[in-house]
Amino acid sequence: DAGVHSKAWYAATCDRKMAEDALYQSNKDGSFLIRKSSGQDSRQPYTLVVFYNRRVYNIPIRFIESTRQYALGREKSGEERFDSVAEIVENHQRTSLVLIDSQNNTKDSTKLQHIVRVS
Q1: Rounded to an integer, what distance in angstroms lies between the CA atom of residue 117 and that of residue 119?
Q2: d(CA 46, CA 39)
Q3: Rounded to whole angstroms, how far apart are CA atoms 87 and 70?
Q4: Beta carbons within 8 Å of 18's beta carbon, 6+ residues apart
Q5: pLDDT of 74-117, one tens digit each?
Q6: Where would one find the signal peptide in this protein (predicted)?
Q7: Amino acid 41: pLDDT
Q8: pLDDT at 3
């Protein structure tokens, strides 16, 4: 268990479009939720969805089998690893999360500030 099921920020029944729509409606930088990833892949079970600067970012959350930990985005050397998805959220409520826009090749950063609930 990734520690997500009882959390306000976990949108269990939410797909990508619903998540993006909910974040655009919130229209607040740092709004976020976590949803199940679209592809049923055990190595990438969840997606962190973040709103910043009028854009929605879908950041994969990877499960690292060898250490039974979680990490964000593509695998990279020296990446931060966490024992649960809840730890990722708690960490990035305190420290900024880097948002990479692959289309424009720009970087931004924001903290996870506003939990968005999907009804």
Answers
A1: 6
A2: 9
A3: 9
A4: 11, 118
A5: 898 989 999 999 999 999 999 999 998 888 888 999 999 999 99
A6: none
A7: 77
A8: 78
Q: Which two tokens stand for residue 51?
A: 């709103």
Banded pLDDT at 1 (limits 50, 70, 90): low
Written as six digits, the tokens of 82 are 């966490």
Q: What tokens appear for 4 in the block?
A: 């997500």
- Summary mean pLDDT of the chain: 93
Distance separating alpha carbons of residues 101 and 106, to the nearest angstrom: 5
Give the pLDDT confidence score for residue 34 in this predicted structure: 97
Domain positions in the chain:
10-115
- 21-26 — which CB contacts under 8 Å span 24+ positions? 22/116, 22/117, 22/118, 23/49, 23/50, 23/51, 23/56, 23/116, 24/51, 24/56, 26/51, 26/114, 26/116
Cα–Cα separations (whole angstroms), residue 72 to 11, 27, 49, 118: 18, 23, 11, 22
